[in-house]
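Tutorial, part two.
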Amino acid sequence: MEYFVYGRDRAGADEVKVRLVEEHWTFMDGYAEQLIARGPTLTGHDEDAESTGSLHIVDLPDLEAAKAFVHNDPYYVAGAFESVELYRFTNTSGRTMWEFADPTEGYHRFLVIALGDSLPAPPASKHLIVYGQLLTLDTEAPLGWAATVEAPTEQAAAALLAANTPEAHPWTFGGRR
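Running the prediction step on this input gives:
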């Protein structure tokens, strides 16, 4: 079962995340084979950008394993997140972020979240990295869509998902360089 985990940073989380980055990466190394996408959302794409959250899309056996994944992340344990969103995820793209091999020059990466019960599937686009449907944890009812995409601007990224009010966050691939 695939899960979408998005921890939204609390104020002052940057210091915690810098201090615990190696511990967080070591924890994530234990899930390397199960990760579909990972990485921080940011205030922008310049080198002074600060973290605003952490995305992980991960394939785990069940909800208990997903909750353990969330609650044992060193960032979570240290209180870096104001909130953590946990949804079932259906990986419509069928690939991982590591299989995205065709980046476009001049484009940036974004996490786009579009909630709503009547959203159409995203269009086929070479700029979609990983995308899929968000579902409730208990009944697996549709909640919306999420995608990691590349686009020239935040507005262009949001436009890739046909929704009234999508959130678009600057995002980058996470993990060890």
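The chain has one domain: 2-170. In part three we will examine how such features are distributed along the chain.
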